[in-house]
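Hi U.,

Before I forget, here's the chain from the pilot set. I'm dumping it here mostly so it's searchable later in email.
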Amino acid sequence: MEMLNLQIQIFLLLAIGWILGRLKLVDKQARFSLSSLVMDLVLPAAIIRSFQLEMTHEILVSTFAVLVLSVLIQIGCILLNKFVWKGIRDEAIRTNLEYGTVVNNAGTLGMVIAEAAFGEEGLLFASVFMIPVRIMMWSYGITLYSHTASRKDAFKKAALHPCVVAVYIGVLVLIAQNSGFVLPDAVQSTLNAVANCNTALVMIVIGTILSDVHVRHMFDRLSIGYSVFRLLIMPGVLLLLRFLPIPALAANVCILESAMPAASTMVMLADKYHRDPAFASKMVFVSTLLSLFTMPFWTWVFSIIA
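Structure:
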């Protein structure tokens, strides 16, 4: 029920954005400004807060497997992009598909669902899993969208992106917190206030972009094919992790996080860099809709193979 309520909340936020867009209360210029606000302030605040983990020695040892698996999964996804979508001739569409293969919505949906399915330890593992994902999101991901003249310039630009800088700060906060230092109450409250806007603002902005897409054009062969690939095939292959000598819960969290729908940040990047944001919105909408059925399926699979 908690998962279902979360999905309903997300679709209600999308609906609010869609209505605002259809009524022209948020035009394209306002949408671009909101996207920049999310990318440059709200998301960085959420990233910094996500690093505020309590790491005991036992948990550190247990989460090491999750961290290593997450890195390997990211590398595997990048390699997949060289084969799976190479037949797509439209460069903007291919960019969205490649980004959607490497990065999904584990940062927004994944943590809440991991906690609902596996408790506090599941939430901790999901947070650790997201560290390599976030690094790839704002380095490899921005390289895909920005198309900077040289790869060196692209990675330099990515390294200074506000969300990547937030990762640097987050690591420092993680180290400081586990050394006994905590942020002052006023700073922590401000960080929480900004970070709490993340899901609502992101989904409302996506809803305004969706308002430009006709409903009957929302479902197409490519967005449905991507959704099946993202939600079923990729995590299905990762079930092989259960046969490796690693903690079952660590493997389950990695599989579950890999079964999340397309990342909402994809629409933000597509809109900012003019890479077919309408198609990116369809990928997010269709995969999120289908995840209503696939996420309960995966939690059921974990229950029978426990």
